[in-house]
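Tutorial handout. Part one gives the primary structure; part two gives the three-dimensional structure as tokens.
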Amino acid sequence: MPMIDPMIDSAGTAQQHDARGGRRIPYLRWWIVALIFTGTVLNYVARNTLSVLAPQLKTELAMTTAQYSYVVGTFLISYAVMQPICGYVIDRVGLRKGFAFFAVAWSIANMLHALAGGWLDLALFRMLLGGTEAALVPAGMKAITEWFPMKERSIATGWFSAGTAFGAAIAPPLIFAITLFGDWHWSFVVTGIAGLAWGIAWLLFYDAPDRHRAITPKERDYIVADRAPAVVGKADVRGIVTSGRFWRIAIPRFFVDPAWQTLNFWVPLYLASAHKMDLGQIAAFAWLPFLAADLGAIFAGYLSPFLTRMFGMRVISSRVAGISLGATLMIGPGCIGLSSSPYVAIALFCVGGFAHAMISVLHTTLSTDIFPQRDVATAVGFVGQIGWVGGAVSTLVIGQVADRTGFAPIFATLSVFDLIAAGILIVSLRHLRPAEPDRA
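Part two.
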């Protein structure tokens, strides 16, 4: 994972020891991102296990398409409701203990899926999974805010967000492999055990930079040099949700998230229904849009600082410019209905994965730009809640109309939503200043 600052000299290129014998790790903040990336991968493998198995589970559990949409909808609604609650808990109890607790909880909820005997059982366990996995983005963005100066946050967010797409990408072949050696029940158990192991690792390794025993003094100084004075006290929930800056990024998120939820939960069913692919064929192709999303997330992370260096853009303007580029690229997947080839559809899904990851990374980073560190997890949770409400509504609508209309008009509508979101951001954020010094 690349570093961009020259702050550590030759004495810091290897592991160091302080006067008390404690081991110091250079560039520790990038190891923190690697840990978050790993947890994100496992989180998304767990949530995507259902969508990969959807064609099989529809048969074995006698689910209709509408009932499957209800199962997915319980996850999305629970996730939406719990995002700000998880964020507030993490802001209050601390990132180390809070994130570990939610990781263990979502892993247990995931394993419970193996006990499902019908779609109602599946919906209940899905609700538990959504409510606990909702901690992921608030916790990850709080960690990035704690560990990174503003000029590196979009890069760190890009790598963090790449974990979402990477997890979704490896889920189809991984779940297919597990089903070859067992059955669908084991897919939920194995992915749940992996999440439990990660939660323990987080608890053992993570701490804030001012307390972490392995950080070098130079890296600690580098991190805090670009940070505004800390705002003390509890997260200001009322101040967040009543502020104009919150709604300026929350409303666009409502239009952005449906496209990502569609990629996560509906692509396997689309390939099965529209192109008659079986589980093996889906496993062979359905991961490609998420690989493209990985590339889009990483690209977006570096795009923002590139725009500030090359064109003198302010931090927020550079984020919005990248979002606008991604929204323009989303026209591609909106045209899926114009081709009958499954390979063209996969290619356009890849364009959509790349483009949406760009939008998501830069939009999420905006929350760290405009809210103080104390409020970041709570603010990210509330913004995410608005987005997931949009995703839940779109999922329920898709479940009701997909069998009658097909997926083509749905994909076209979602691409228009991203353009609307970009337009709102361009108009509403023109004069907004960040909460911290504008040095990116």
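Part three, for discussion. The first helix runs from residue 28 to 60. Confidence is low (pLDDT under 50) at residues 6-21.
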